[in-house]
Amino acid sequence: MDQDFMRFGLAAFVTLLVVVDPPGVVPMFVALTKDEQPPRRRKILTRAVLIAFGVALFFLLAGRAMLSYLGVTVHAFAISGGILLFATAMPMLFGQRGGLQAPERRERGSVGQDISVFPLAIPMISGPGVIATILLLTSQAAGDPRRLAAVGLAITLVFLVTFVSLYLGGRLITLLGEGGVHIATRVMGIVLAALAVQYVLNGISGYYSLLLTR
pLDDT digit of tens for each residue in the chain (214 aa)? Predict the structure, then answer.
């Protein structure tokens, strides 16, 4: 396995893991399913993660074609994606759920509504931040099959981590405590903010390099 595959895959995994923020989803999942029996809770969890995973794979496979159709360059999307991720990171720095991931109060599910689809799968797990990140990573892959495979593997691992985190949600909250969850969210926010700034810098430098070669 070559170094580029490992390096790009690791960067994709870390970025997606921070954006999905499994510890930040756990309290919401526990609150939404607190009245459900364990078998029903497992069914809701499995359905939510599978739907979110399907959404992520769709944008992995169709993302580059979508950008090409819209006439958006890789560098432009790197800058806009970085800004979007930074907006996600800001609330996390204050111990809150990422701004592009958290549903509104009125979106928390209603009677007769399948909460595994909404709001669990979308937007809590596969929200705009995740979609933007996948499109950004797809653009950076530039059609390289190995890099696309690395992103696909990273997505799979992130959703596995998310499933396990939510499955052990109640125990995880007991173990970490509310303070521990807030600390984990803040640390992830710092990492995501740094990655977002790096994406913007890469986009700007890439754009000016393109201008100089013309």
Answer: 588 889 999 999 999 998 898 887 887 788 778 778 889 989 999 999 999 999 999 989 987 787 778 887 767 877 887 887 788 778 877 766 554 444 444 444 443 467 898 878 987 898 777 888 898 898 888 788 999 999 999 999 999 999 999 998 867 766 767 677 677 778 877 877 887 888 788 888 888 887 887 6
pTM given for the model: 0.72
Answer whether 48's CB lies under 8 Å from 120's CB. Answer: yes
Find out whether 44 and 113 touch, Cβ atoms under 8 Å: no
